[in-house]
Amino acid sequence: MQWLTDPVQHFPPQRDGDLVEDGVCVGFITKKIELSQPAVTAHMQVLADAGLVTSKRIKNWVFYKVDRIRLAAVMADLNVAFPDDASATGKQARFVGDGSDTGRGE
Fold it and tell me: Closest by alpha carbon to 14, among 48, 89, 52, 65?
């Protein structure tokens, strides 16, 4: 998910669709995580069904983009639901773009 929250840093420019505005092409996601396109599509559909990403079709490709508001709400809910987990490790759940990430992938 972190790759999708900062697509410009993690993916090359796309011929069709803007990385930030439209999302990342499923082909680039497939190449990045080294799984088959059907496997990636199935996993991305689960994330879409959960409201964590949105999808957009451009020509023959599907592009996926993180829904930052929904992701932030889920992360906040997880921090409330599992406060002991965060205090036990000394870390809170975080994602790129919410100000809590150092950008070092820690």
Answer: 65
Please write the tens of the pLDDT for every residue from 2-45: 889 999 999 999 999 999 999 999 999 999 999 999 999 999 99
Both tokens assigned to 104? 């070092």
CA neighbours within 13 Å on the CB side: how many for 60? 1
pTM higher than 0.85: no
Are the C-beta atoms of residues 26 and 4 closer than 8 Å to each other? Answer: no
Q: What is the pLDDT of residue 103?
A: 41
Token digits of residue 69: 């508001």
Burial of 38 (0-12, 13-18, 19+ CB in 10 A): exposed
Whole-angstrom CA distances from 34 to 5, 31, 37, 83, 89 are: 19, 5, 9, 34, 30
Sign of the C-alpha dihedral computed for residues 25, 30, 31 and 36 taken in this order: negative
Over residues 68-95, mean pLDDT: 75
